[in-house]
User: Fold EDR1/CTR1/ARMC3-like peptidase-like domain-containing protein from Cuerna arida.
Amino acid sequence: MVKSNKTTISSKKHEDRELASKTAFESTSVEIQSPQTMILLLASKEDFVILKALFTLDKYASKMEQNARVLYEEGILTLLLPLLNHSELFVKRFATKLLSEINFLPPVAEILLQEKFVLPIMEMLNTIEDFVVKEFASSMIAELTRSKAGHSQLLETNLIHILVPLLTSSDPDIKKNCLQIIYNTIQDPYDHSLITSLPDFTIKPLIDLLMSDFVAIQNLSLDILNILTQHRKDNRLSKDFQNAGGIMKMLSILKNFEWKDVHGKCLDVLGNIYDDPNIAQNFLKDGVLQLFSYMDFVNDLHLRRKAVEVIAKVTNTGLGRKVLAESGLISKLVSMVPEQSVGLAGAVCQCVAGLSQDYQALQQMLAQDVVRKLLTVMADPDRAWDSRTAATSALFEILQRDVDSCSFVVESEMKDVFESILSQHDEKMPALASIMTCNCITVLGSHPAIRKKIVSSSLISSLLGCFKELPEDTMPVKLSACEALCSLLSEPETRHYLRIFNGLETIWSAVTQRPNNIQFLQSAATFLHLCVTNDKGFTATLLQLNALNWLLSQGGLRNQCPAWEVALETILNKFLPIKFAMTGRLDLTDITESNFYITKLSLTRNQLDKNQFPILEYFITNNCCPIQILYVANFEENYKLASFGSFTSKRSASTKSILSKNESFLSMTSSYNCEKFRYVDVYLQEYIETLKAILNQNGLSSIESDRKHSVVDGDTVKTKALLIGDFVAKQMSGTDRFERCSIHTLDLHVNELKVEIMNSIIPVGWMRVGLHLERAFLFKVLADRVGLPAALVRGQYHQRGWVEVAVPCIPPTPRPDYPHHLLKPNHVVDLMASPVTLYPLNSYEASVYCGLV
Assistant:
């Protein structure tokens, strides 16, 4: 039987055991040479690939700035920024590190700020504990907050409080980055208190970092401390600084010359805190001694200057000055004044200025001849202006407190140093140098005995030179120069030189520019007040400058600066002719003086506004318009009275004979005297002597009036007024007693005098005919000479003038004395009636006499 070869097929399916290996993607190593290709790998789903790509890209970016720029231009930010939130820690580390490598590029930083990435990065810094992430996150914030936008976004996060605790981190890079963030934050002058105002803020971590081995951390800590101590608002920061051992750490750093690079910043911080009483109390003495020792060992002039500047700040406190005075170190400071280095000598002079406020220290410095050394520095033209200015400031402080030093300065061979400095006043010279020099002159001018020794033509010329216009604002210099001139004005030589150099015109020019400086306007008003008070001749100069009209038009200026109201009043009171012309009245307290004059015809307001009031000196020398007539009263006592016989003989004497005997024309005195020319009015002098004799015969006082201090016997006012009125009426009743005085006879008489004198200035004593105005004028002059308060008033029409007197209503006994300046006119004197009559003010008779009805 033959067997079949047919096989049986199994129902089970065949399994391919190699299928997995066939479908799996085999790993491979590819050599990538393009950063763009590597950037694309950041989109991978595999963490290892992302890590490898991040590592490679970070290594590439860290090599040079151009590489980081290439990565940005290839669009790495699109794939990199999402990786900051990756769940894998290592991916997050490398992503943060790579971003910190390229975020210094302006376009990268701009994108991060536009996308508000400061907040998420700060949250990473706050929540993630990994040191690597913290390091590079803080690095990014440090870079972003350099701009105002980054700073603003940081403030909006409300996470600033996490920065100070991170200063205690064990990672030095985190410390450095957090310090940089804090420094960027407090750079804004309005935000420097953001850190110190935090509830948990303490300065101790910053103090501890001063001893770090890393110079960058030390520098940043010192920069932050410098800002915080410089702008501290209360004692809390100073107290924390003291409790944290800040002073001792600073001083220990100064002892270590291996840390010389940070010594300058340490000295800056010490200078900020040494004026605090709490710190000075405990550390001042040892600290100052160490600073002096430090200056002996350090050769760097910059550091020596900073150490002296710290000592200068120490001298700003009473305790600091006391410690220096008791330490015996002042002689060492004074010996450093002549130092040639720029800045060091200036710092030493600041110390001298501060120490001068302590009596004991000042005496020690004077014993070391400090004034001479300061003058030497000031007088050295080869020195820098900083040193010369500081020396001038120190000298000013000393002169304020020691009169002997003032005497030494004016008697030394270097007393011309002030005008030498001021003569160099230009745009290259510091304004402070001119200001302090003027202040020194002001102090010297406050001592009468010393003032006489310093006034010279060169000094006054130099002070006036401070008023020249420069490109920059020189108003503080003008203010100081004006104050210096005010201190010297009481000396006749000063006023003499002011006339030579047109000083009044120079200062008035600065005033009329209406500078927006109230202090200068105040000082200028004082200057004009003193000028006119000491020498009324300056009033004529002011009138020629149209100063009076200008001041009257500047009501706002007088309201803003009341000193100008006083100056205006002084000008009017010192120059009564213009006051009478402008107001039409001289009050009881306005006492006329020799050479007082009035115009025969009243001037209109338009004429006064156009500055057409006649100045006597100018009127005489230029022989002005003969139509304009002036009445002048000259009763100078320096001319000896000559005997011309009785009044009868005088009336018959010709004017020519009088002129020949008395040199009728004006005799010239000193060319800069206010009264350049004087009439020899012997008749007026004889009037005064005769009237005094008449009053004495009637038992009445004839003492001359005093504006402020005189008193008036109230019971004799009426009697005096009638006697003087009768006397005036007799002298001006005309040449013929039977002929009534009229305007026609007055004009004829005045014209005769004008022809004989060859001038239109008529001495009132020579007038034989007078109407209301002329008689009132003579009455006022005589009344002031014999102590009767009288007011001279000018009417608006017909050249009327009258006199008003104050007749007190008093009981028969006792006879009280009334203060001159408190009297008020209440009667009008009728000088045209015979006999002379008194009318109550505002009565019908008084109104008729005054031409008011």
Remarks:
- The CA atoms of residues 209 and 832 lie 102 Å apart.
- Residues 578-849 form one domain.
- The mean pLDDT is 82.
